[in-house]
Amino acid sequence: MRVFTRRLVAAAAVAAVASTFAATPAQATGIKPYVKVGYFTQWGIYGRDFQLAKVQKSGAASRLTHINYAFGPVTADGLCASADAWADWQTPFSAENSVDGVADVEGQPISGNLNQIKELKAKNPKLRVLISLGGWTGSKYFSDAALTDASRKKFVSSCVDLWIKGNLPGLTPGVAAGILDGIDLDWEWPGSSGEVGNVIRPEDKQNFTLLTEEFRKQLDSLSRTTKKRYDLTAFLPASPVKVDAGFEGKIFKYLDFGTVQGYDFHGSWEARTNQQSALFVPKGAPDNPDFSSEAAINKWLSVGAPRKKLVLGLPYYSQGWTGITAGGNGLFAPATGPAPGVFANGTEDYKTVKSLPGFKVYRDLKAGHSWLFDGKTFWTYDDPAMMLQKTLYIRAKGLGGAMMWSLDGDDANASLTKAVSTGLWTP
């Protein structure tokens, strides 16, 4: 009875907002399918015990158009490199943890996650996999790499050689050629602060455009040889201040699409509970101006981004606070600190928070966000019903699709990915 009731509530949540949105004509006719991008983290195979085999077995792989493999850092010398060669191309996988069900053997040409990507693509021929460069901890030297024409050419050439041509150190030249289908730029952030110690310059804004141009030029040059087209995408901030500091709308001349951060609007680094991924600013929000998906997308549209090249990011994790004593539904309430988490305090995977005992689900359908509260601890909460509401927003706004960070946060049945895929289905 409880399961039936939850399904009924979820269906009602979607129905309540469906009438608010109407698909744009181009999307309604199915002219171009929506992209559905899931991030797979290189390090997830360790403590999280999340391998690409689980992406296949859960049914997630068949419902995605792209996987972004995260991350490849930029070195102090302005080159592309591996952050963990053992994970990328050396570690052997057992039969149980292999996509094809066959154990790796000593002496095979390539192992690691890259070989598993190769196996995953064999089972899902339409799936495209990109290497994501940078990330929060790997963006320190992006500014140096992008600084001059010579440095850009050197950097891009090294990235194409390593990740696209597949010339991996210590292995047969070209052993990984054809495994990856393009490059995703995750520079966090040009022209503004990210991780402490990152190199930042005012000219990063123009240099990022020039960098995307150089990537497009070298990838297209390679295409003329391989007869294969390579994707170029970028991860883009939600903050209007960061957009103005580091990005020009003309980057979309070179990008296939850009994924807009649709999460971390608020988090446990703040002293009161809040939403982390609302579609619209909730009524009664204490901050003005505030962050929302609508504000982020509208900012990108205002600088000239094409709607169909904007892909909205969706979180597969929660932000959490504890020590709340204000009562009520817990939203916008003072908290004493981050809620305890399995891997880090203040954040938790959807697969974990969905089954926490003693919590009540709250939904703000007008603002497009939900949360869990037990009277003391508060978790932001994006469940399948919320994912469906967000896909309706994507359709209504005429956007290009959805991006999800990250696949290891979903449950064993890929419930969130399946909801996104259902909501963005095209004939």
Walkthrough of the structure:
This protein has 427 residues and is an alpha/beta fold. The chain has one domain: Glycosidases (TIM Barrel), CATH 3.20.20. It is built from 13 helices and 14 strands. The chain has helices spanning 2-18, 25-28, 52-57, 85-90, 112-123, 142-145, 149-164, 204-226, 240-246, 293-302, 350-353, 384-397, 415-423; strands at 35-41, 66-72, 128-134, 182-186, 231-236, 257-260, 310-315, 317-322, 337-338, 347-349, 360-364, 369-373, 378-380, 401-405. An eight-stranded parallel β-barrel has the order 1-2-3-4-5-6-7-14, surrounded by four helices. Helix 3 links the parallel strand 1 (35-41) and strand 2. The longest helix has 23 residues, at 204-226. The chain is globular and about 60 Å long. This is chitinase. It catalyses: Random endo-hydrolysis of N-acetyl-beta-D-glucosaminide (1->4)-beta-linkages in chitin and chitodextrins.
Topology:
Layout: H1 2-18, H2 25-28, E1 35-41, H3 52-57, E2 66-72, H4 85-90, H5 112-123, E3 128-134, H6 142-145, H7 149-164, E4 182-186, H8 204-226, E5 231-236, H9 240-246, E6 257-260, H10 293-302, E7 310-315, E8 317-322, E9 337-338, E10 347-349, H11 350-353, E11 360-364, E12 369-373, E13 378-380, H12 384-397, E14 401-405, H13 415-423
Parallel strand pairs: 1-2, 1-14, 2-3, 3-4, 4-5, 5-6, 6-7, 7-14
Antiparallel strand pairs: 8-9, 8-10, 8-13, 11-12, 12-13
Helix pairs in contact: 1-12, 7-8, 12-13
